[in-house]
Structures are given as C-alpha cells and as structure tokens.
Amino acid sequence: MHSARDRIEYRSWLEDLERIADRLDLSTEARSTATDLFLTDVPDDDRSKRAVLAASVYAGSLVAGEGRTQGEVAEAADVSRLSIQSRWKDVLERAGLEPPGW
C-alpha cells in the first residue's frame, strides 16, 4: 500500500496510467496492480518515468491475467516496445514478485 502523499506527488503520472489503461480496456485489478508497481519504485529521472509507467502497465496486465502485448502497451503509452521489454521484469522483482520464466 502506498501513502496518499505518493499518490498526490505522482498524480499526473497516475492520470497518464489511467489514460493508458483506458486505451487498453484494462480492468480495475490490472490498473490497481499497475499503480502499485509504479509507486513501488518511481525513478528520480523524469525521462525514465514514462518507460517505468508503461512497464508497470504491462506487468499489471500480466498479473491480472489480462496480458496485453508489449507492442500494444508501448503504442498506448507512446514508448518503444524495447522500453517495456528491458524493464518489466525488474518492475516485478522490485515489488517482490517473481517474473515468469518464459
């Protein structure tokens, strides 16, 4: 669980997450998981935040059983697929989850 302070500090990023989730038609569970993953370890560098946000959405969709492709998420988040591919497993690990081995 994350503090209200975190949600306020990163409000604009979380609004972006919601817009991306809307484009992908993700469930409340996938959105909540993506939010938790993003807030677990928000990067300091603003340039990295969008990529971590997209990786969090991708990972959140997997955890919720709604797996969207990296390409679909990348398009919805306006990042490269490689940005997601290189980060999503780390996002899960930092949150204490084990990424799939495939």
UniProtKB/TrEMBL annotation:
<keyword id="KW-0804">Transcription</keyword>
<dbReference type="Pfam" id="PF00382">
    <property type="entry name" value="TFIIB"/>
</dbReference>
<dbReference type="GO" id="GO:0017025">
    <property type="term" value="F:TBP-class protein binding"/>
</dbReference>
<feature type="domain" description="Transcription factor TFIIB cyclin-like">
    <location>
        <begin position="17"/>
        <end position="92"/>
    </location>
</feature>
<dbReference type="GO" id="GO:0070897">
    <property type="term" value="P:transcription preinitiation complex assembly"/>
</dbReference>
<dbReference type="InterPro" id="IPR036915">
    <property type="entry name" value="Cyclin-like_sf"/>
</dbReference>
<protein>
    <submittedName>
        <fullName>Transcription factor TFIIB repeat-containing protein</fullName>
    </submittedName>
</protein>
<keyword id="KW-0805">Transcription regulation</keyword>
<dbReference type="InterPro" id="IPR000812">
    <property type="entry name" value="TFIIB"/>
</dbReference>
<dbReference type="InterPro" id="IPR013150">
    <property type="entry name" value="TFIIB_cyclin"/>
</dbReference>
